[in-house]
What we know:
Elements: E1 4-11, E2 15-16, H1 26-38, E3 51-55, H2 67-74, E4 84-86, H3 92-105, E5 111-119, E6 125-126, E7 142-143, H4 163-174, H5 178-198, E8 208-209, E9 216-217, H6 229-233, E10 254-264, H7 268-271, E11 277-286, H8 296-307, E12 314-319, H9 324-334, H10 347-350, H11 357-372, E13 376-383, E14 387-395
Parallel strand pairs: 3-4, 3-5, 12-13
Antiparallel strand pairs: 1-10, 1-11, 2-10, 5-10, 6-7, 8-9, 11-14, 13-14
Amino acid sequence: MTDSYLYAAxxxxxxxxxxxxxxxxxxxxxxxxxxxVLAKVPALDPGEIGDVVWGNANxxxxxxxxxxxxxxxxxxxxxxxxxxxxxxxxxxxxDAALIASRTIETGDADIVLVGGVESMSRAPWxxxxxxxxxxxxxxxxxxxxxxxxxxxxxxxxxxxxxxxEANEQLGDRFDIxxxxxxxxxxxxxxLADAAWTAGFYDDLVVPVAVNRKGxxxxxxxxxxxxxxxxxxxxxxxxxxxxxxxxxxNASPLSDGASAVLLGSEAAAHRFGxxxxxxxxxRGVFALDPQMFGFAxxxxxxxxxxxxxxSWPQVGAVELNExxxxxxxxxxxxxxxxxxxxxxxxxxxxxxxxxxxSGGRLLGTLAHRLTESGERWGVAAICIGVGQxxxxxxxxxxxxxx
Length: 401
């Protein structure tokens, strides 16, 4: 068995729903991320990539028929480079990284490209297939953008509540008030804006051409600098008349793609660069579907156990902010310093294109560790229908600390 390492990461800017990226097909977004990450390792012959594992949560529209393979072809890689697409909903691209790291560790491949894509703007409406031909009644079109649809009637009703209602229940369970959630959301926007201003994302984000005139999107579209708790407090709850979750303290619908290059230590000469981080631990966990927001707690704990470290040793955490209440519940349960979590902003500000978010977390975490010199970091993400994934990264340069 060998270790697996992260060598490079890149992503597109994340666009708002019906925003600047709405006119860009998901397979083109994916190809942009692939070209972006390969540009960081010009010494690498793309033909040496042993496999591509790509994440996508939808697959009902232009991302159909193995969008990972489509990305490889559209990016201009040799047709000999294989690809597969995996779907673990919000965790799809982080799952791709878990699969790829195992592939490298077992010796099945030396270099694996991973990533993910989602265009929530372009997710189609679908019609359920009727039980018989020529039905007399109407059929309703169902949006595939987010959440449960075409639900099996045998599923318990408490499992299939809307995602927002599930997190209202989480807030009830842990007594997390509206003000804490709004404060957390403001922090996310402030930190994201500060990170962009400081140039942190300059080396991580590749521009996307949004039309034939050559206009590009260069920065995450959802960041709102200058947000205040007072402004957020004026917004109406989205899921309950007396609820705590609003459009401002939850992640927005988004479009975007991310990519990460993983390889063995022996592959360093092919990249022409030393690795940034080692995949030190992995964690997978599941619980009742409506409690999905709390699942990262145990997933991260399991990843830490596999890495043979504990929370006091962790210097950086990237936790996907599906909802502020969910992020707060996890941070509280870990009993860690909130100041090490999402210091470059999180999904509430940056956006959450489902299939791409795991790759964003990994790339951001690796660059945070490089910047700070901290040795250990954790990336974790909650997943609809009651699951979560987590990865522990070890900063290669800080391994002696």
